[in-house]
Design goal:
This protein is α+β, with helices and mostly antiparallel strands. It folds into two domains: 100 residues, Glutaredoxin (3-Layer(aba) Sandwich), CATH 3.40.30; 109 residues, Glutathione S-transferase Yfyf (Class Pi), Chain A, domain 2. It contains ten helices and four strands; from the N terminus they run βαβαββαααααααα. It has a four-stranded mixed beta sheet with strand order 2-1-3-4. Helix 1 crosses helix 7.
Length: 229
């Protein structure tokens, strides 16, 4: 089985980070095609990989069958289904149901936070003015984390014990809280530190730092996509 994941600029592409973490944490080998975002040609380059014209995109070759999965949560679910031994969802049915609920809430919600605090993974930036709507969303996220950690986090230190899709879904929020210096309780700070210390998160950070050092967009990224199968 061969996987190719099409992702966007590391500093900005929250949805790409989620799918990428799921594949990495499951120990799955995959080819990556990185598309520079916020370019006139970005949509065209992504559309060559998938009709959704959005990243991430997972292309799967399984024997003679080729398939395409788009949308981060759909990709995570696909990986969990095809590689059940990776344990991307909790084993306990109650914990698994809550982990799925948390993941879906992140997938469809917190729009004010996303707009006010865009991901800029490798930078530390001053926090912009935060209105009441964003404050409510920050409080909801941190309370959800606190509850999951207090109930399930003792066996591994992540939201539901071992690292799961729920952690993948909230990884960009962890980075946002770090970037903008959002206040956190000690328990939440420790969780955020564990997330940022993961080898996979450090690898993503190294890529994001490279983007800054070399300047965006890198023409080789554009050429890679144009020449991709």
């Amino acid at each position: 089985m061969d996987y190719t994941l099409v992702t966007g600029t590391r500093n900005w592409s929250t949805w790409s980070l989620r799918a990428w973490l799921a594949l990495k944490s499951a120990g799955i080998s995959f080819e990556e095609i990185l598309v520079p975002l916020r370019r006139p040609e970005s949509a065209e380059l992504i559309a060559r990989q998938s009709p959704s014209a959005r990243v991430p995109i997972l292309r799967i070759k399984d024997g003679g069958i080729e398939s395409v999965v788009f949308d981060s949560l759909a990709i995570c679910e696909t990986i969990a289904e095809r590689h059940s031994s990776a344990g991307l969802w909790p084993d306990d049915p109650e914990a698994r149901g809550l982990a799925r609920s948390y993941s879906a809430e992140m997938h469809s919600g917190f729009l004010a936070l996303r707009e006010a605090l865009p991901m800029d993974f490798a930078r530390n930036l001053p926090a912009p003015p935060i209105d009441e709507t964003v404050e409510v969303e920050i409080s909801r996220i941190q309370e959800a984390w606190r509850y999951a950690l207090s109930r399930y986090g003792g066996n591994g230190g992540f939201l539901f014990g071992r690292f799961s899709i729920a952690d993948c879904m909230y990884a960009p929020v962890v980075s946002r809280f770090q970037t903008y210096g959002i206040p956190m309780s000690d328990e939440i700070k420790e969780y955020a530190a564990r997330m940022m210390a993961l080898p996979e998160m450090q690898e993503w950070l190294a890529g994001a730092e490279r983007e800054i050092e070399e300047g965006l967009p890198d023409q080789w990224l554009v050429d890679m996509v144009r020449n991709a199968r």
